[in-house]
Amino acid sequence: MALANPEFRGTRIFLYAFSMPSKAPFALVVSALLAGVVAGQSTLWRVPTPYPAGLRDVLEQAGWDVAGADRVHQHVDVVGDAGVPPALAALGLAAIPQWSAIPFASRAPTLGPPTDIPAGYRTPAVLDAAAAALAATYPNLCVLRNLNTDYGLPPTVEGRSIKALKISDNPTIDEDEPAVLLVALHHARELNTAEVAMDHAARLASLYATDTNVRNWVDNHEIWVAWSFNPDGHEYCWTSNALWRKNRRLISGTTYGVDLNRNYALGWSSTCGGSTTPSSETYRGSAAMGERETQVMQAFANHRRFAKLIDFHSYGRDVLYTYRCTAFPAMLETWYQSEAVSLALACGWTAADIRKSSAEGEHFQWEIWRHGTHAFLVELGTAFQPAYTEVVTESQSTWGGVQWILSRPIPVSGHVRDACTGQPLSADISVAGIAYSAGEIRESSPTTGRYHLFVPPGTWSVTYSKAGYQSVTRNVTVATGVGGVEEIALDPIVSLNAPAILPVGTTSTFSMSSPTSPNSFYAILAGASGTSPGFHVGSCHLSINPDAVTSLFLDASPLFGGFTGMTDAAGAAAAFLTLPSDPALIGIQLHFLPATLAIPSPVAVRAAANASPSVVGP
User: Fold this and answer.
1) How far apart are CA 473 and CA 491, in angstroms?
2) Whole-angstrom Cα distance, residue 161 to residue 149?
3) Could you give the CA distance from residue 52 to residue 27 in angstroms, rounded to a whole number?
4) Domains 113-322+334-367+374-401 and 495-617 share a fold
5) CA distance 546 to 531
6) What is the pLDDT of residue 91?
7) Is the pLDDT of residue 41 over 60?
8) Strand, coil or helix: what is 168?
9) The CATH number of 412-490 is which of 3.40.50.980, 2.60.40.1120, 3.30.70.3400, 3.40.50.300?
């Protein structure tokens, strides 16, 4: 048997794992030995170890509620009931109680001088008031949004709303700019994260007038700060249990709560997902995205399409990246690892202060999967609720990380639009050589057409495609530290099935298809001369020629049936042309141009195709 983490070689735990007759993977051994000991959350236990990172990883894989790992002081903290010490003792580990669950409002004064409390940690209500005050103080930069109201979603089970501050140079207008999200407190007890997130919001607003970098970030991004994404758990932490992690939905009997950071869709049901035991502090819920809080985030992110994101958690002072078990392209994995190192260094930490994510079903992973967001989880601090002096220190430190994410150029960005109308399109975007295997989605926004691609330096073949349009492939070169822009126009597919021979004395039928123009006005323009005369609208050519056939068409001659009208729900139409038995017509070449129009006028083209030639025959 070999352990994934070399830190355990030669330790008592490692020898114990070897002694198991089945040679089961170590995480499974620990899981079996410790099964059932984390059902009740009551005490924070400190586990001394010379290998804190390795022990943390093993316990997390076994489904434990791991609070954090401290490499400097060499310990791991876990949360659980009275069954924790004997279970760990069986593995040769000690468990030293730190404090038991009491309301944070009762515990707070023990964290520092009494004068530190009013100016330090703020109750949920006071944090909400601080956000409202920030918006009132800087109305030209900040607006406070109620996300439940914005997306027509119900409040939390206890009737609360999730709020966010939007920081921009035009905060009341949805501008076509890259969106960035700073989010905190998916886990209720991580009170320092809410304080840090709110502090970053205040920095962005207050420094705008004097700091040119801040002004540039605010002017060229839409920055969102959501300081408490678990408002029910946040309140419960203050009033009842300072170690509470989950939300407050009643599961059954006296069992409450789902771990919101195990409820997201990516990897939700995998072996690395959260617990299936409702009493567990890492309970993933009965369905992916099944909680009201995660549903709000889903609607929020699907609308805003965040390009960059930091999800603040505590504690550990490290940066987490990509997936835990789900396959991720190896080349991108290496690159994301280097990006995590850059973010850790920007926070004032070391290149070693990075790691894979704790589990799956986590928010930041879902953002990578669903929107290609440059997303990371930042574990800050040395405790959930340290003395407020540490909160200040962590805010100053992670401000460097916020600056890094805001200044990080987007390697490839731009818009995808309809070539004829200029309207934004939601198009699929694929990159040759990057093979996703988990159904990752890369697409442009349906409201703006904006897209972003985070790929390493190099030359990439990027394909933009949408049903009803001709695909476009571009070779794009990405340079280190430089953002590139590719504006894409997709030509609508408009086709006309016109007979090659039009016999005189008969009626010929035509069929037209324009999938992008259902229930729209259409015209099949006819001309007897070439396709060159006419005019261009965008990339669409209308060949309207002053000949006898065109005149007959414009005069609504009975020879032309169904050459104008409305397409059906599939964008289809049918037409016919009746030619008299006149030998003089034989040999004439006719051209038929199908087009859909925004209004019944040839100057309002929505989509068109090249003219289809037909020859009048005997």
Assistant:
1) 13
2) 8
3) 15
4) no
5) 12
6) 85
7) no
8) coil
9) 2.60.40.1120
At 214-224, the pLDDT tens digits run 999 999 999 99
Tokens 């057409």, located at residue: 449
**Domain 495-617 CATH assignment equals 3.30.360.10:** no
Q: How far apart are CA 343 and CA 401, in angstroms?
A: 6
Which residue shows structure tokens 């699907």?
302
Q: What is the pLDDT of residue 4?
A: 39
- Cα separation, 200 vs 216, whole angstroms: 16
The better pLDDT of the pair 492, 144 is held by: 144
- % of the chain with per-residue pLDDT over 90: 66
Q: Indicate the SS3 state at residue 137.
A: helix
Residue 389: alpha-carbon gap to chain centroid: 33
144 strand-pairing partners = 165
Beta bridge partners of 375: 309
Which amino acid does the sequence have at 466?
K
User: 108 exposed, middle or buried (CB, 10 Å; 0-12, 13-18, 19+)?
Assistant: buried
With 50 as the cut, is the pLDDT of residue 532 above it? no
Query: Which positions ≥6 away from 243 have C-beta within 8 Å?
Result: 41, 42, 43, 44, 79, 100, 101, 189, 237, 384
Predicted confidence (pLDDT) per residue in 76-108, tens digit? 999 988 889 998 998 889 999 988 888 888 877
Q: How far apart are CA 258 and CA 186, in angstroms?
A: 11
**Contact indicator for 418, 489 with CB cutoff of 8 Å:** yes
Superfamily of domain 113-322+334-367+374-401: Zn peptidases (3.40.630.10)
Encoding tokens for residue 466?
């949408």
Omega prior to 315 cis, within 30 of 0: yes
Residue 379 among the catalytic residues: yes
Burial tier of 227 (Cβ tally within 10 Å: 0-12, 13-18, 19+): buried
3-state secondary structure at position 463: strand
Q: Render pLDDT for 122-131 as a digit per residue (tens, 0 to 9).
A: 999 999 999 9
**Active-site residue identified among 60, 281, 360, 379:** 379
Paired strand residues for 608? 595
Q: Write down the pTM of the prediction.
A: 0.86
Cα–Cα distances (Å) from 143 to 88, 341, 425, 462, 569, in that order, read 49, 33, 28, 37, 41
Do residues 262 and 362 make contact, with C-beta atoms less than 8 angstroms apart? yes
Show me where the domains of the chain are located: 6-100, 113-322+334-367+374-401, 412-490, 495-617
Lowest mean pLDDT among 15-19, 61-65, 224-228, 352-356: 15-19
